Input
Amino acid sequence: MKSKNQNVYLTAKDYLVSEESFDLLYDSEREMLITSPQPSLENLSKYYESEDYISHTDNEKGLVNFLYQKVKKSALQSKTSLISKLNNATGSLLDVGAGTGDFLNTAKDKGWDIQGVEPNQNARELARSKNVLLKESLDEFSGQQFDVITLWHVLEHLPNLKDTIQQIENLLTPGGTLIIAVPNYNSFDAKHYKSFWAALDVPRHLWHFSRNSMSKLFSSKLKLVKIKPMIFDSFYVSLLSEKHKNGSSSFVKAFLVGLWSNISAWRSKEYSSLIYCFKNSK
Output
């Protein structure tokens, strides 16, 4: 049920599993979009049951999967470099939504003491095959604290957003770093593709964030110290969006849209995806 400060922004379709349609409600108070209706916790997992859900597999078959896996390897180095720049020394690291464990493996090689949580069983088993042992729920870390907590395209998936954010904040050490990467529905590629924009990914994405919303969701003790663009995302998302819109992935069209999205964002700062870096001041 929508509240008085929520109106339908657009309606989008689940192209991966169900082909069901969902409204995206604009929450004017938090300047974000909310998927409606949201699946119950009991039914949410069925919307991830697809061999094409790439973050739960290491599949390289097909152009899109191949490009994703190749770019991911480069991105892993960029991610570990970022956490090193934001922290004076290595320490304890918790990755929420760790997928198949590749980021944690890379961080471990750099000297980080790693822990991770991943609710998907298949992804956890793939991570285990790489000697990365993941927990199923954040609840299993109750009472612990970490120097760095990361969520790489995960916050948009988490049910009970307010309570989960509070839980994550409690797991962060004083002076610790929280790093969150999410899609940006105010980017050029989002506005170009509209309901076909692949990063809407309803209903797996329960929430859709703007730059302003990300500064409103967290408590005052978390100071936003840096925002970084994820340049590749506009190309990858545009490639998927072309398939949603036209039935096939046009590499040329996707490249041009992705390129223009990054060029326009050079001034507006509204990149397809953004990394938000917070410091815990208490």
About this structure: The beta strands are 6-13, 21-27, 32-36, 92-96, 113-117, 146-152, 172-183, 207-208, 222-229, 273-280. The chain has one domain: 6-280.
